[in-house]
Amino acid sequence: MLLSLVLHTYSMRSLLPGLVLLGSAPTYVLLWDAWRLLSMLLPCLCHRVFILVYGDLPKNKENIIYLANHRSTVDWIVADILAMRQNAVGHVRYVLKDRLKWLPLYGYYFSQHGGIYVKRSAKFNERKMRDTLQSYVAAGTPMYLVIFPEGTRYNPKVLAASQAFAAERGLPVLKYVLTPRIKATYVAFDSMKNYLDAIYDVTVVYEGKDRQGQQVESMTMTDFLSRDCPRVHIHVDRIDRRDIPEEQNSMKQWLHERFERKDKLLMEFYESPDPESRNRFPGKSVHWKLSLTKTLPSVLLLSGLTAGLLTTEAGRKLYAYAFICGTLFGCLWVSVRE
């Protein structure tokens, strides 16, 4: 035990000098840390990720529900990328897990920007979600509602549970996607069916390999930012509102059929015996480039404001107070709204 204590103490040998230095010369330490961070990230940021879009994504804005497989935290970025292609980033709203409302600052932001927090299974509050969506329709709010019907991210452990559930219920046992949940999708469509133009059925693959050279089926944000993803493949099926069944059981069957189709698309992507068909979706792809004019101004503005705050004592205090007070206010706000 004494040896363990000595080892732990030795492992923290740099902590006290670091705290002393931070207190005596905070500006220098923050600038040094920023430089070290940039020296680590710049090679990754200079690495280009190719965005390949397949299918029939319109260029004009529409009121839509966006249904996609959920493989990574990067999926939120993909939804924004497609919305940006249609100049509709400001229209994006998310259906989110209820516990995400406690995220510092972001939990409050999402709720104020039209996000809808939902609980699973018996705790799902259908009336609340329906009332919220119908209020948006009544107000004429542009709608780009992002839903991940699987309910959680794909990984081997969750896949095994999903396959067991599907086999027990007599549903198709899927390999590359999870069995979808119907409630949020049905309530969203039923609440806005006369307001929507279409549903976008989106299938996303992050192309990459692990250190053993094996294809990665799910990817973390860290992997994505660490040059482990050379290409993102996005397949879009636009389904007109009039072609979607309105009755709940019929829509449940329709949603399962759409996920069966996703599974076949992904199986073909990973396992096709034809090398020409592997690592790509069927059909023609469009390499979509994001113009710097759409991103650079906001990056420079945010970076400039952040640097201005962190390099002065008053700015750091303001930054800390805003974070702490904003988080407490946001948590209080979402609690009261519940």
Q: Explain this structure to me?
A:
The chain has one domain: Glycerol-3-phosphate (1)-acyltransferase, CATH 3.40.1130. Helices cover 50% and strands 14% of the residues. The protein has twelve helices and eight strands. The protein has an eight-stranded mixed sheet, with helices on both faces. α2 crosses α3 and α6 packs parallel to α8. The radius of gyration is 23 Å and the shape is globular. The relative contact order is 0.15. The N terminus is likely disordered.
Feature tags:
single chain; 338 residues; alpha/beta; Glycerol-3-phosphate (1)-acyltransferase; 8-stranded mixed sheet; 12 helices; 8 strands; 14% strand; disordered N terminus
Q: Please give the share of residues in helix.
A: 40-55%
Quick one: overall form? Answer: globular
Count of discrete domains: 1
- The helix-and-strand class reads alpha/beta
Question: How does CATH name the architecture?
Answer: 3-Layer(aba) Sandwich
CATH class assignment: Alpha Beta
The average pLDDT value, as a whole number, equals 81
Continuous helix count: 12
Q: What proportion strand?
A: 5-15%
> Ranges with pLDDT <50 over ≥5 residues?
1-15, 39-44
- Strand order, largest beta sheet: 4-3-5-2-6-7-1-8
End-to-end separation: 48 Å
The helix-strand sequence is HHHEEHEHEHEHHEHEHEHH
Secondary structure: number of strands: 8
Rg (C-alpha, Å):
23 Å
CATH topology title: Glycerol-3-phosphate (1)-acyltransferase
Query: Biggest sheet, open or closed, and with what strands and sense?
Result: 8 strands, mixed
GO biological process, one term: hematopoietic progenitor cell differentiation
Protein name: 1-acylglycerol-3-phosphate O-acyltransferase 5
Pfam families: Acyltransf_C, Acyltransferase
Organism: Cavia porcellus (Guinea pig)
